[in-house]
Amino acid sequence: MAGGSPRFSRAWSAFTGGAATDAASQRLIGIQILRALAALMVVYSHLMARNVNRGFLHGNEWWNVDLGHFGVCIFFAISGYVMVHASARTFAAARKGPGVALFLKRRIARICPLYYLTTVAAIGMAAAVHGEAASMGDIVRSLLFIPYLNESGLYQPVYSLGWSLNYEMFFYLVMATALFLPRTPAILFVIAVIGALLACGMALGSDPGAYGGSAAAYVFTRPEMFYFVAGVCAAALPLRSVERRIGALPWLALGGAAAGLALACAFQHVEWASALFSLVVVRAAAYHIAFARLWPHAARLLSFLGDASYSLYLTHSFVLGPVSILVAKTTSEPVLGVVASLVIGLAVAIVTASIVYLFIEKPLVNGATRLLQGRRRETAGTDAELQGKPA
Length: 391
What we know:
By secondary structure, the protein is mostly helical. It has helices at 6-16, 23-27, 29-53, 67-86, 99-130, 136-143, 163-178, 183-204, 215-219, 226-236, 240-247, 250-266, 271-287, 290-294, 296-307, 309-330, 334-373, 383-386.
């Protein structure tokens, strides 16, 4: 690789995990692996939905579990965890400097560039393939992360996958407000605000009409907000002495995380239960790198895929459609169709996301960071800690 271009060499180093040598990166490698698994859950779920649409599946098979929603909720829990750690030096310092503005600029630089790009691509594809044109009002609300009820009767932006980013940006605003406080009061403030929203949602129920026509009031009182609290609590719980002992037994730590993930999937329609299991999963993944100790090469690849998880989430819908059409034209055998769509779909989605991450997302984020922050250098947290990438 020494003879290649510097840009390609950096990309290859990122892909092989060569850059993840600092202590902070190693400490959060479990979170990156969990990000990868969460993104793969979403891709798997969407692949299964396409197999149902193509007639390869009936939709009621026991193994055809809707992992996509829970994958996104795992992302929410990870965001809660990472934001607490990324803001370790920012709590209470916001009153003395540009801490809140810096926090929000980092979040905007991370989320907006690729989301805006894929939204434009989705608008263009809808116009070219279906002859559909989004209204300017819907486009503006989508780009500003303002929830609204679309023509299909769903609370989704122009690019439907952006629904989760509306939750993410709202959580970041709550978190930014909390940065004026010391760490413990700030964490309690975030839990109290989201808890109050959830209580309002429980009191008013699931009928959108009870929210006075406000889409934002309805959306941000949904049970999905519970997962951010789970992540915040996962970061706040003082369990390190216990975890150090468990860390000496990597199989036990890995088994506990796997059991928590399985239970969370089983109880994914019981929000409080799956949020509790999410807390266990995120905490176990964050503090211990049992998987990395047992299978270091696989851990490196999954860690890279965790880095690319945002690209995977936002780009997979563009490639799964053509893959599904290709498989349907190639075979009518249900079993072969399902297997082929899974293997080809996952492979194409992962390769596409890797390319987009290395050569589009990273340059866009770097450019947006320079534009928003000028020459200011970050002084709080490492790059791994500040990624905070959403679903």
